[in-house]
Design a protein that fits this description.
By secondary structure, this protein is mainly alpha-helical. The chain has helices at 7-11, 16-25, 43-50, 62-79, 87-103, 105-137, 142-148, 157-160, 164-180, 185-191, 211-232, 237-257, 260-270, 273-276, 279-282, 288-296, 300-318, 323-326, 332-345, 357-374, 384-392, 398-408, 414-430, and strands spanning 31-34, 37-41, 355-356. The protein has a 3-stranded antiparallel sheet, with helices on both faces. A hairpin with a 2-residue loop joins strand 1 (31-34) and strand 2 (37-41). The radius of gyration is 26 Å and the shape is elongated. It starts with 6 loop residues before the first helix and ends with a helix.
Length: 431
């Protein structure tokens, strides 16, 4: 698993800890700023600073407040639409929106558009989750299908898509679609089980949904197993070698596109033990290109090479004039770990009791960057046949992969022989 350095090392260059503790030592009792940025403050001072009162929001100036409230609600429903899947939240939103719309005729159209846009987003989300559930329910072990219906699974990925660049494009379609459905609040819900400002107080009475985030992680695992399955399945050594070289080319195209998640999934699949043990097969493969890709995604030094490549892709995206150049699909598991360690490794409150705003600024920065990347529209033409194959074709389980590997290149020691016999008995006998 990737290792993340101490947070002192991660943020010293920006003066993160230095600014925080200077503010703490200064004994700020209200809100503490550095270079006009809020660093910390007591919860009481923040509430006093934000909550309206009669001095600056008197009742006779409600017309001045309404546009700000409408702007807040609009941004909330656009950025965090999944919050309103909760019936209570939706009911409160509609009540407040009704009050705003009833006050001024000019607000009614904006309120209507806001509610309608939110309803459409939630309906689309429900449809997407239904598709995910259907795909999940129909997933089958390829070994079972191979033995019961051998003619239905003789195809491989190369017969479906012979061009590595085209496959990389279709993988990018899947990545961007699944990224787009991940709500930013899912990052918070994945890690925060208690009140972030009170370690002894439960934040949620029930576990919040992170289904879309989990589905994206499941996609990574599926792609890894699909790659390993396609390599282990061919009977002939030259066909397995050809499949390995094919996926090396696909991975390289993913790197060029900026699709780092598919790239890492492919590398992970090729590095699975059932694949890596096929020494006779690998001897027929020109591995120079694969070595370059592995170097780019090397986990040493906290994925230094990958992070450098990601920064380059992000800079290219900022200056891009086309959707093709805007694509940045991060290695998602590492992004999750970065956010997790930032959340766990930095205190929510400073020693003086102030809320540690700079921690939350940094969390917001990472999630905001992700939000920008996930909104890019895929510029490549969709190929339904390829997409359906990638998403629905049965793949080998881990045991089935080992069995296929041993059947292709026999066991090399007693441990492998014993496992081979056990797998043949349990898997082939069961089928």
């Amino acid at each position: 698993m990737p290792q993340t350095p101490p947070f002192s090392a991660m943020f010293d260059s920006s003066g993160y800890n230095r600014n925080l503790y200077q503010a703490a030592e200064a004994g700020c009792t209200g809100l503490c700023y550095h270079d006009n940025n809020l660093l910390s403050g007591s919860l009481e001072a923040l509430i006093q600073h934000l909550v309206p009162n009669v001095d600056y929001y008197p009742d006779n100036q409600i017309r001045k407040i309404a546009p700000k409230i409408l702007q807040l609600l609009t941004e909330w429903t656009e950025t965090f639409p999944y919050d309103f899947r909760d019936e209570r939240m939706m009911r409160n939103l509609k009540d407040l929106a009704h009050q705003i719309a009833s006050g001024e005729e000019t607000y009614r159209k904006n309120v209507h558009q806001m509610i309608q846009g939110l309803v459409r987003k939630l309906a689309t989300l429900s449809q997407y989750e239904e598709v995910l559930a259907k795909i999940s329910s129909t997933s089958t072990d390829r070994l079972t299908v191979l033995k019961t219906k051998p003619q239905s699974i003789q195809r491989d990925i190369i017969t479906i898509c012979s061009d590595p660049y085209t496959l990389a494009q279709q993988l990018t379609h899947i990545e961007l679609e699944r990224l787009n459905y991940i709500g930013p609040e899912e990052f918070v819900q994945a890690f925060v089980q208690k009140d972030p400002l009170d370690n002894d107080k439960s934040c949620y009475s029930e576990r919040k949904k992170t289904r879309n985030l989990e589905a994206y992680v499941e996609w990574f695992n599926r792609l890894s197993y699909l790659v390993a399955t396609e390599i282990c399945m061919p009977v002939k050594k030259k066909h397995r070698a050809r499949m390995i070289e094919y996926f090396i080319d696909v991975a390289r195209e993913c790197f060029n596109i900026g699709n780092f998640n598919s790239l890492m999934a492919i590398i992970s699949g090729m590095n699975m033990s059932p694949v890596s043990r096929l020494k006779k097969t690998w001897a027929k493969v020109k591995t120079a290109k694969f070595d370059v890709l592995e170097h780019q995604m090397d986990p040493s030094s906290n994925f230094y090479n990958y992070r450098t490549a990601l920064r380059g892709a992000a800079q290219r995206s900022l200056a891009a004039h086309s959707s093709r150049e805007k694509i940045v699909i991060p290695f998602f598991s590492l992004l999750i770990k970065d956010i997790y360690f930032l959340n766990e490794g930095c205190a929510n409150r400073l020693p003086n009791g102030h809320v540690n705003f700079e921690k939350f600024w940094e969390l917001a920065k990472q999630v905001s960057e992700f939000m920008t990347w996930k909104q890019v529209e895929c510029p490549f033409e969709r190929d339904r046949k390829i997409l359906q194959y990638l998403l629905t074709v049965p793949v080998f389980s881990e045991d089935a992969l080992y069995l296929a590997s041993y059947e292709s290149e026999g066991p090399e020691n007693h441990i492998e022989k014993d496992r081979w016999k056990s797998l043949r008995s349990s898997l082939l006998g069961r089928v």
